[in-house]
Write a structure and sequence with these properties.
heterodimer; A: 250 residues; alpha/beta; D-Maltodextrin-Binding Protein, domain 2; 2 domains; 3-stranded parallel β-sheet; B: 233 residues; mainly alpha; MetI-like fold
């Protein structure tokens, strides 16, 4: 019994010290690379629209940059729930399905989704065509539900998908418009085709928000307030102009 | 925790996802074992040849495919073929475009390499007395192979080969890295759809266990029938 108490006490002490150490830094989870929102600069450091915006938010709250934790997309929410980080800044669309598991901040940007293809793909004639999506994204949900005659090919990362689009394994890929635009510059034969897709809101949600564990309502309020400040004081526009020539503010 | 488990497994879609994945996995493993085994038999015979010019190329093949991870081989074949200049315009691309065939090729070559070495071992350890007896009967090399060496070698290869079959089943899980909707991919899909890693992967793991159990049962019967004469009494 005595030994058990000692173990419990030392565990408690350990838990406390971890808490104290991380109190002043906000740890943020991100799925990189996902240019231009988050990617590695030539020197290996993380950069991109969301990284800069996130750092600005963290500074507003703690005076320091966020501590970034890179995590593959399909593990992002489980990682948050497992306390690997306290907030997700990773282009996560706010939708009803995710709201069951996490708490969202006010939206901080919104983008349409778009088809990209090297072969003049037409979304209206998708029968038997191979369309790439990132697994478990809203684009995946959309294609699975609306383009039932197409063959959906699911990828873990956007990079793998772009490679297969270039080599001709895919007829098209369906991604966030800015992400696709980033890929166009690298391989010129790929172009955006068809119309931009934003509907239905049931799937595409009301924009992109930061995600928190449900119990962390206090942190959520702090981040939402910080975002509001940044949007008003012009810092948001300053960062946005560096990455986009269209307005994504919401 | 339990709510989400209930939610996942009360949805018939979940079982459909796993079923589709199981079919793909079994299909792929079965086909690659079939073709790989067929390739391995002649290779194993040639591998036991004393002629260095026949023996060495096959040694190089088995060394390469046993000496590198299957994942590397899969990437080399999947991404490698796409880099061949102009392949997109040829007939081959209609086959290689799907992830299934590059994957099948990688698995087949890999299992062929291992199976070749398993068969070579048992061919070489055929008791000398049996071969001498066959020679004394005046059998040619071909007849000896056909009647004495191969039947005995295949029987003695069964225990080692059952391992290879199980390894192949488990190795097939890497097919999900190149977008094939196999059993592990089904697990990943459930994981990503419900954000429930445990439920998603444990159920996939259970199905792998059941498949392994089936393989073991088949090989147990085979050993009983084919290797009965070698069992200790």
């Amino acid at each position: 019994m005595k030994r058990l108490l000692i173990v419990a006490a030392s565990l408690l002490a350990f838990a406390n010290s971890v808490d104290a150490k991380n109190k002043d830094v906000i740890r943020a989870g991100v799925d990189a690379p996902y240019p231009p929102f988050e990617y590695k600069a030539p020197d290996g450091s993380l950069t991109g629209f969301e990284i800069e915006l996130g750092n600005e938010v963290c500074k507003e709250i703690t005076g320091k940059d966020c501590e970034w934790v890179v995590q593959a997309w399909d593990g992002l929410i489980p990682g948050l729930l497992a306390r690997k980080y306290d907030v997700i800044f990773s282009s996560m669309s706010i939708n009803a399905e995710r709201k069951k598991r996490v708490l969202f901040s006010a939206p901080y940007y919104t983008t349409p989704s778009a088809y990209f293809s090297a072969t003049n793909f037409d979304p209206k004639a998708s029968k038997g065509k191979r369309i790439g999506v990132q697994r478990a994204t809203i684009q995946d949900t959309y294609i699975t539900e609306f383009l039932t005659e197409a063959k959906v090919v699911r990828y873990t990362t956007a990079d793998d998908m772009a490679l297969d689009l270039e080599s001709g394994r895919l007829d098209a890929m369906f991604v966030d418009a800015p992400v696709g635009m980033g890929i166009i510059n690298e391989a010129s034969k790929i172009v955006q085709v068809g119309e931009l897709v934003k509907e239905p809101i049931r799937i595409f949600g009301n924009g992109i928000g930061a995600a928190f564990r449900k119990r962390d309502a206090k942190l959520e309020a702090q981040v939402s307030a910080a975002l509001e400040t940044i949007k008003k004081n012009g810092k948001y526009d300053e960062i946005m102009k560096r990455y986009f020539d269209f307005d994504i503010k919401i | 925790m339990f709510e989400s488990t209930l939610e996942i497994f009360s949805n018939p879609d979940t079982y459909l996802t796993y079923w589709d994945g199981t079919v793909i996995t079994v299909q792929m493993v079965f086909l690659s074992l079939l073709v790989g085994g067929a390739i391995a038999v002649p290779l194993a015979i040639l591998r036991t040849s004393k002629n260095r010019w026949i023996n060495t190329p096959i040694w190089v093949f088995t060394y390469l495919f046993r000496g590198t991870p299957l994942l590397v081989q899969l990437y080399m074949i999947y991404y490698g073929v796409a880099l061949i200049e102009g392949i997109q315009q040829t007939f081959w691309w209609t086959i290689l475009k799907e992830a299934f065939y590059p994957c099948l090729i990688a698995f087949t070559l890999n299992t062929a390499a291992y199976t070749t070495e398993i068969f070579r071992g048992t061919i070489e350890t055929t008791p000398r007395g049996e071969i001498e007896a066959a020679k004394a009967y005046g059998m040619s090399w071909g007849k000896r192979m056909q009647r004495i060496i191969l039947p005995s070698a295949f029987r003695r290869a069964i225990p080692a080969y059952s391992n290879e079959v199980i390894f192949m089943l488990h190795a097939s899980a890497i097919a999900s890295t190149v977008t094939i909707a196999d059993l592990l991919n089904a697990g990943r899909l459930i994981y990503a759809r419900y954000y429930a890693p445990f439920d998603g992967f444990i159920f996939a793991g259970i199905i792998y266990l059941c498949l392994t159990f089936g393989i073991l049962a088949v090989f147990k019967q085979l050993e009983k029938r084919m290797l009965g004469h070698l069992q200790p009494r």
